[in-house]
Design goal:
Helix content: 25-40%
Distance between the termini: 65 Å
Largest sheet: 7 strands, mixed
Structural class: alpha/beta
Shape: globular
Number of helices: 10
Bound molecules: 1-{4-[(3-aminopropyl)amino]butyl}guanidine
CATH topology of the largest domain: Rossmann fold
CATH superfamily of the largest domain: Vaccinia Virus protein VP39
Number of strands: 12
Order of helices and strands: EEEEEHEHEHHEHEHEHEEHHH
Radius of gyration: 19 Å
Strand content: 25-35%
């Protein structure tokens, strides 16, 4: 008689081993594609729970199931903070989920700079539900290049700059550092603002702290907010707005609601109430975030 339980990890599993000593995974239904570019390893898989997923250098970037939670929070919070966002720059975001949400704001003219064309190609081929046609929208301009180089010596042209990067390891490291934020500030208009993914507040506290001190060296207003992204380590993710004039925490519910209503878009995570609530941090996160 065997008392051995069935191995819960039998079959094909995607396991993400985090640098901070944690593993998470999903059962794989099908491995769709794998490519090594000069920038990174790209993998696309289909999973039972989360549908199709994009993985870069072993770190899960987005899934069909919860991409809206991340992309709506990265895009709508800053775009509704700015009173009249037109010229938008997206750095990274090769899966197209950010571009798609920017295009949902009718007056925007987005420019996206992605370093690795293979990410866009593979995502358009295997996981088109994420960009949902955004890359063929005539309003969208896509540039293949290094965001860090692109932003250097740009005239002040952008109302909002969105950084949709990987974790601060490998090619994305400069996007978390002060020289880049100085260039971003210069490329923003007088009342422009930046929003960036700012890592796990649970497992990547030191990276979040370092990023915030780099942002505070450049911008007068720096505000961190949180959202749920179940497929990222820890399930809670942080985002940060760094701004010259507009404070995302100072908008009344009435003003926010009026802006959201006039944009006329459909959301599954973002609401004016969520916008306000996302800046209310549990004390252990508030403590590591600190204040301006
Ligand atoms: N960029 C942030 C993903 C961070 C996930 N980190 C991890 N799994 N260790 C997402 C890009 C989506 N457009």
């Amino acid at each position: 008689m065997s008392t051995e339980a069935a191995n819960p990890l039998s079959g094909d599993w995607y396991l993400e081993q985090e640098t901070f000593g944690y593993v998470q995974g999903a059962h794989v239904r099908q491995r769709l594609a794998r490519a090594q570019t000069s920038f990174q390893a790209i993998e696309l898989i289909d999973t039972d729970l989360f549908g199709r997923c994009l993985i870069l250098d072993g770190a899960l970037q987005t899934t069909e199931w919860d991409e809206f939670m991340y992309h709506e929070m990265l895009v709508h919070v800053p775009l509704f903070t700015h009173p009249n966002p037109r010229n938008i720059l997206i750095i990274g975001g090769g899966d197209g989920g950010t571009l798609r949400r920017v295009l949902e704001h009718p007056a925007t003219q987005p420019v996206q700079v992605e370093i690795d064309p293979a990410v866009i190609d593979q995502c358009r081929k295997y996981i088109p539900a994420i960009s949902n046609g955004a890359f063929s929208d005539p309003r969208a301009k896509v540039v293949i290049g290094d965001g860090f180089e692109f932003i250097r010596n740009r005239p002040a042209a952008f109302d909002v700059i969105l950084v949709d990067s990987t974790d601060p390891v490998g090619p994305a490291v400069p996007l978390f550092e002060e020289p880049f934020y100085r260039d971003v500030s210069q490329a923003l208009t007088d009342d422009g603002l930046l929003a960036a993914q700012s890592n796990s507040p649970i497992y990547m506290a030191s990276q979040l702290k370092a990023q915030l001190s780099n942002l505070r060296a450049v911008f007068p207003i720096v505000r961190t907010y949180i959202g749920l992204v179940p497929t990222y380590p820890g399930g809670v993710w942080s985002f940060t707005i760094a701004s010259k004039r507009h404070d995302p925490t100072r908008l009344s519910l009435d003003d926010l609601s009026a802006r959201v209503a006039s944009a006329g878009l459909t959301t599954r995570y973002y609401t004016p109430q969520i916008h306000q609530a996302a800046f209310v941090l549990p004390p252990f996160i508030a403590e590591l975030v600190g204040s301006d």
